[in-house]
Amino acid sequence: MALLKQMRPDSRLLAIEKVPAFKEALDEIADPRLTSQIGDAADLLPILKDHGLGRADVIVSGIPFSALKPTVAEAIVRSVHEALRPGGTFIAYQVRSDIEQYARPYFGVSSCKLIAMNLPPLKVFTWQKS
Questions:
Q1: C-alpha–C-alpha distance, residues 49 and 83, integer Å
Q2: Rounded CA gap, 5 and 19, in Å?
Q3: What is the CA radius of gyration of the chain?
Q4: Contact between 90 and 84 (Cβ < 8 Å)
Q5: d(CA 94, CA 63)
Q6: What distances in angstroms separate CA 88 from CA 31, 59, 60, 116, 130, one per listed residue?
Q7: Whole-number Å distance between alpha carbons of 51 and 76
Q8: Rounded CA gap, 73 and 1, in Å?
Q9: Alpha helix locations (H) across 11-125?
Q10: Residue 1 — very low, low, confident or very high, per pLDDT cuts 50/70/90?
Q11: Rounded CA separation 7/15 (Å)
Q12: The pLDDT of residue 29
């Protein structure tokens, strides 16, 4: 809901989930700007195309990159890079810093903010696609 509150009325939010229960929870949100789909973040471009969308302005990820095989993590970050428009923003909120090693080759150095009020504390990494 927080993302929807920040969006313009003409924006669209496409939520991609792997877990059907999470999709079902998203489907209960009555906002026409929100579309949810079961899918894989490594397939962002085809998913965007299936929904008639171009490259994304912003991609937000809570995927736990520290729990992924390196090949899977790299494939997801590559997909994010391909799916973002030039100047687009990639935001990843994480407990650990593993995302940096995968994103740096595509996006360079991140801006990182610690959210200490969260338990456990979260790091919010932000990159701009050049």
A1: 10
A2: 24
A3: 15
A4: yes
A5: 8
A6: 24, 8, 11, 27, 8
A7: 19
A8: 26
A9: 20-27, 44-50, 70-83, 98-107
A10: confident
A11: 14
A12: 96
Our CA angle for 97, 101, 106, nearest 5°, is: 125
Q: How many residues are given for the chain?
A: 130
Distances (CA, A) of 72 to 13, 67, 78: 24, 10, 10
Residues pairing with 115 in the sheet: 122
Please report the pLDDT score of residue 48 as a whole number.
97
Structure tokens at 30: 């009555």
Q: Tokens for 115, please give them.
A: 């959210």
Residue 119 is which amino acid? L
What is the C-alpha separation between 48 and 95, in angstroms, rounded? 28
Read off the pLDDT of residues 80-123 as tens digits, 9 standing for 90 and up: 999 999 999 999 999 999 999 999 999 999 999 999 999 999 99
Domains of the chain: 11-128 (3.40.50.150)
List phi, psi (to 5°) of 86.
Answer: -55, 135
* Strand, helix or coil for residue 47: helix
